[in-house]
Amino acid sequence: MATDTFSKSNPDTWGLLLTLEQTSAILNVSPWTLRKWDDNGKLVAVRVGSRKDRRYRKEDILKAIQDGV
């Protein structure tokens, strides 16, 4: 069951869309690496808001972990 506290090691605490910072913590890579992966199509972000901030789908993060990214 989901809780209000985010834990990088517990997917049950993740929302459906994760921030750049949350995804960086989960995958243990820098935010710049995530930006590069997005630009190269390795792990594509969803763009939200007027600033086009990056968000990552929970299902994509779980797949990346499973695939050893």
UniProtKB/TrEMBL annotation:
Signal peptide: none annotated. It comes from the Bacteria. Residues 17-66 form the Helix-turn-helix domain. Coiled coil: none annotated. SUPFAM superfamilies: Putative DNA-binding domain. This is Helix-turn-helix domain-containing protein. The lineage of its organism: Bacteria, Candidatus Roizmaniibacteriota.
